[in-house]
Write a structure and sequence with these properties.
Elements: H1 2-20, E1 21-25, E2 32-38, H2 49-58, H3 63-70, E3 76-82, H4 87-103, E4 110-114, E5 136-141, E6 144-150, H5 157-166
């Protein structure tokens, strides 16, 4: 009985996780896009992997900046608001995820909310975040916002990330 209950809970959570992100058609381009909250594995879908893998694998980051970031990860969580239709998101998000992987960042502390061209999502109360450009990387410590990288970094992703953590 206990095993059956565990199996039901696991299956229902998988179904719930799949419902959270929707693959829909972008009305402007006619191409697939993601909408809603989903983990980063959605970017490995064949509709997105062609740009995701290229940017992820080819990004060269500053190891000294990443080493500095490692010292300040306690209590940090990150929200990424992105559009799979957006060229800036296609460039910056895979690079940022590469940095997080180098940091061995806990993916449970990362949320990705995929938005449409109006910067809207059916989940995550995006309107309260005042998102004007994507991607927007929002950094939180102890549940409080401590900084953002909006659209493109001022220095580099890892440089801006470091500056947010040290200021």
């Amino acid at each position: 009985m206990k095993k059956l209950l565990i199996l039901i809970l696991v299956l229902s959570s998988l179904i719930y996780a799949q419902d959270k992100s929707k693959l829909i058609t972008d009305e402007r381009s006619g191409k697939p896009m993601l909408l809603g909250i989903c983990d980063r594995s959605a970017l490995l879908d064949s509709n997105f992997a062609w740009w995701y893998e290229s940017e992820y694998n080819n990004y060269e980051f500053s190891t000294s900046a990443v080493d500095s970031i490692k010292q300040k990860l306690d209590g940090l969580s990150v929200l990424i608001v992105m559009g799979t239709w957006c060229s800036d998101s296609r460039r910056e998000v895979p690079r940022f995820l590469r940095i997080l992987d180098e940091l061995k960042f806990n993916n449970e502390l990362l949320t990705i909310n995929y938005v449409d061209r109006k910067k809207e999502s059916p989940e995550g109360n995006i309107s309260s975040l005042d998102i004007k450009y994507v991607p927007t990387f929002i950094f939180y410590k102890g549940g409080k916002e401590i900084g953002r990288i909006i659209e493109t970094p001022q220095i580099t992703l890892e440089g801006d990330f470091k500056n947010i953590l040290y200021n």
